[in-house]
Each structure stands twice: as structure tokens, then as C-alpha cells.
User: Which sequence fits this backbone?
């Protein structure tokens, strides 16, 4: 019989929440968190770097992310609590490491949400007639607030309402991709696959980072683990189902895009739309609409999941206690949802999609490293909070592949980006130590006061 989890590291944190999400809802959340607007643009950039062999980047990165997903499934099945990776990293390595991981996780999510909301606003501005160009600034603010605010409002009503929104948007975002694959398969030209020649510029490192970024997002979905039914079984099944599906989707999209556009794929910034334009102008518009829906869908997953990290940190005494409140009627962390959505709005108003997305992707790498290491330690210590865990037989190779690949990804970043990541980690450590000292001082004063009385 595996030992119980440490005191206060899960069951108390999740008090008041309802475990209502099943395998289908969690898998849809993961797909929605991973399949964002990136897949509508990245095939062209991959082709520019690797030519007709670009599909191999998706396959190779699928193996890397698959190894990391196994680690997260193992750890998530052992410590299924609000905050996801924060919860099982904190259980494995203690509150300081958990706090840093939690801070990196929610901040990376907020950066990505802000970036995508800014991208949606830019699309809306580009649709403005020239006569209304002077309203661009007002429209940008209105779109950002409206997009994030509408999703937050749904999630405040309940986790099931948020999950239903995700399920709907996941289907809507997959419809244009399905149309692309079905219609595109009939327009493929065999001559666009000259396997004997290498047509790319050879910047494999750039291609790998792009492909890895396209796969990131599963960790955000696990932040709602405190509201997942039968988590020891549901989390591993949902991760496998979602990541296998995403891999098949990505490789198929790359093959079809290459088959239709050929050498022109490397110069396209909207490859799916350009490919469908060769079939029908209406299908081009469908691809552009699909990209917008995909962005909105990604935001819906993030705003359901990431606020649970703030909630978990607050429940553990590491953030203002107000963030740990649960709505008495809807049983969701409503204050954390509103606070997170407000931060995402502010970030969207202050930056661009590219700036915010790059920072978000880089911040995810050390989180994956810590998550893989936590999976190994939890398995070694036989920690299990909710029934029999996954107990993956080849966990150690998965851990080694996951850690090594993320170290390599960080090494590919620029010195400035690495310095920024180090600064974020340093600030998190300092904040934790300061809060710990303040709590100790308050406790000493309280104890002293009680002794005098």
C-alpha cells in the first residue's frame, strides 16, 4: 500500500472543489491547450528550416513531448491536486521549489494568454475599413477585454460550464483542420516531395524550437487536477489520448501543406489559408476564421486551468488568502479567475503576440525539467494520493529524455532570454523567502502575545 501524501499537500488544498471532469473533458482541455493558432502558421516556418523533411521535426518533438507527458501523467496520477505541476513538484521537492514552479507556470500562462488576446485584437483591427482607422486603439482595448472577460465570466459560473465551452471550441477549431486535411488530400501533388534534395536553410535548431512550442500546453490543463474525477486513471488516459491525437494531426497538416504548396510553403506566413486558396477563396476565409477560433479556444483552456495555480498557492499560504476563496454556489475559485484574467488583460495591452509568446515558451522549459524530476522522485518514494498510480515501467528513460531535451532548448535561447528567465526564478525565490520570514515573524509575535496574556 503506497504511503499517503504529505500533510496539507492536496486534500486540504482542494477542499470545496468538485471532482467533475472526466477523461473526455480533460482530453479536450489538453487538445485545446496544445492546438492553438500555432499550427495555422508554423508549417511554413518549419519548411523554411527543414524543407520537405519538416514533418520529421513534428515526429521527433512528439517523442520528446511524449516522454515529458509520461512523466506528467505519472506524477499527476500520484498527486492529483489543484495547481497541477505545482502540486506534484511541491510534494516531491518541498515548498520553495514548488513555489518557484508554480510562479513560473502561472506567469508563463498569463504571458501566453496576453499574447493571444493581443493577436485576436490585431486581427480585428486589420478588418477595420480605412475610414475607421482612427478607432483602432479603442477597438484593440475593447477586443482584449471582451475576449478575456467573456471567458472568465463563463468560468466563474462553474467548472462544468468552463469545460463545456472548451469542448465546443475544441470541436469548432478542429472542423477547419478536418476540412483542410480532407479537401487538401485531394489536391496533393507528388512532385512537391523531392526527397532526394534538401530544400531548407538547415536551421534545425530554429525548427525544433518552433515544433516544441507547438506541442506545449498540457501542463496548463493539469492545473485543474483538483476537479478531475478518478484522477489516477483519468489523467494518464486523457494525456495519452490527447497527445497521440495532436501528433497525428500535426504530421498530417504538415504533409498536406507541403503536398499542396510545395516550395511556396517555405515563404508562406499563413500556409493553411494559402493552400486552401488554391482550391477555393471561401476555404481560405474558413482557415482564417479557424485560426481566430483556435486562439479563443486556447484562451478558454488557459483561463479555466491557470487560475487554479493562484488558488493552490493561496491555499498553501504563499499568496494572499483571498485568492483561495471558493464561490459558495458555483464551487470555483472565482477570485483567482478574475485576478488572473485581469493580469492577462494588462499583459495583452502592454505587448505583442511575438514578444509574449517567446517569453512564455522559454519559461516552460525549466517547469518541464522539474516536472520530470518530480515524477521520478514520487515514484521512487511510492507517493500516491488517489488510488493506484500509473507505475510506468520505463519511467527513467522518459525522465532522462525529457530533462535533456529541455536543457538543450534553453541552451538554444539568446543570452538575454536566458537572463530574463533567471531573473524570474530569482524573484520567485526572493518572494518565497520574504514571505516565509514575514510569516515566521508574525507567528513569533502572536506566540509572544499569547504567552504574556
Assistant:
Amino acid at each position: 500500500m503506497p504511503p499517503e501524501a504529505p500533510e496539507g499537500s492536496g486534500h486540504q488544498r482542494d477542499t470545496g472543489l468538485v471532482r467533475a471532469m472526466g477523461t473526455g473533458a480533460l482530453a479536450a482541455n489538453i487538445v485545446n491547450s496544445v492546438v492553438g493558432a500555432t499550427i495555422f502558421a508554423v508549417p511554413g516556418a518549419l519548411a523554411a528550416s527543414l524543407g520537405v523533411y519538416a514533418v520529421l521535426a513534428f515526429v521527433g518533438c512528439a517523442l520528446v513531448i511524449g516522454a515529458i507527458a509520461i512523466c506528467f501523467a505519472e506524477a499527476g496520477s500520484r498527486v492529483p491536486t489543484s495547481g497541477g505541476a505545482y502540486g506534484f513538484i511541491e510534494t516531491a521537492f518541498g515548498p520553495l521549489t514548488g513555489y518557484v514552479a508554480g510562479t513560473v507556470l502561472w506567469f508563463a500562462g498569463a504571458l501566453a494568454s496576453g499574447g493571444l488576446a493581443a493577436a485576436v485584437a490585431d486581427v480585428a483591427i486589420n478588418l477595420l475599413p480605412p475610414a475607421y482607422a482612427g478607432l483602432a486603439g479603442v477597438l484593440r482595448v475593447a477586443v482584449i477585454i471582451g475576449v478575456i472577460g467573456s471567458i472568465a465570466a463563463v468560468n466563474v459560473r462553474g467548472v462544468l460550464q468552463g469545460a463545456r465551452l472548451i469542448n465546443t471550441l475544441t470541436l469548432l477549431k478542429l472542423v477547419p483542420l478536418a476540412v483542410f486535411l480532407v479537401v487538401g488530400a485531394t489536391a496533393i501533388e507528388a512532385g512537391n516531395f523531392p526527397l532526394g534534395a534538401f530544400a531548407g536553410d538547415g536551421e534545425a535548431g530554429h525548427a525544433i524550437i518552433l515544433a516544441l512550442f507547438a506541442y506545449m500546453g498540457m501542463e496548463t490543463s493539469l492545473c485543474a487536477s483538483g476537479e478531475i474525477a478518478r484522477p489516477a486513471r483519468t489523467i494518464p488516459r486523457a494525456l495519452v489520448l490527447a497527445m497521440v491525437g495532436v501528433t497525428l494531426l500535426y504530421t498530417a497538416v504538415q504533409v498536406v501543406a507541403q503536398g499542396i504548396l510545395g516550395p511556396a510553403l517555405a515563404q508562406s506566413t499563413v500556409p493553411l489559408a494559402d493552400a486552401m486558396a488554391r482550391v477555393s477563396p471561401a476555404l481560405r476565409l474558413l482557415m482564417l476564421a479557424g485560426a481566430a477560433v483556435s486562439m479563443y479556444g486556447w484562451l478558454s483552456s488557459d483561463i479555466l486551468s491557470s487560475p487554479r495555480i493562484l488558488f493552490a498557492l493561496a491555499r498553501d499560504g504563499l499568496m494572499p488568502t483571498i485568492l483561495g476563496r471558493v464561490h459558495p454556489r458555483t464551487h470555483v475559485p472565482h477570485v483567482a479567475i478574475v485576478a488572473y484574467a485581469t493580469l492577462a488583460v494588462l499583459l495583452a495591452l502592454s505587448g505583442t503576440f511575438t514578444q509574449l509568446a517567446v517569453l512564455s515558451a522559454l519559461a516552460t522549459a525549466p517547469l518541464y525539467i522539474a516536472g520530470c524530476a518530480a515524477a521520478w522522485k514520487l515514484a521512487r518514494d511510492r507517493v500516491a494520493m488517489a488510488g493506484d498510480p500509473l507505475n510506468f515501467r520505463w519511467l527513467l528513460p522518459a525522465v532522462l529524455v525529457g530533462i535533456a531535451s529541455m536543457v538543450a532548448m534553453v541552451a538554444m535561447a539568446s543570452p538575454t532570454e536566458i537572463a530574463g528567465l533567471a531573473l524570474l526564478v530569482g524573484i520567485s525565490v526572493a518572494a518565497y523567502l520574504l514571505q516565509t520570514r514575514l510569516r515566521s515573524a508574525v507567528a513569533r509575535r502572536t506566540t509572544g502575545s499569547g504567552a504574556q496574556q
Confidence is low (pLDDT under 50) at residues 1-10. The chain has 17 helices and no strands. The longest helix spans residues 415-452. The CA atoms of residues 116 and 353 lie 6 Å apart.
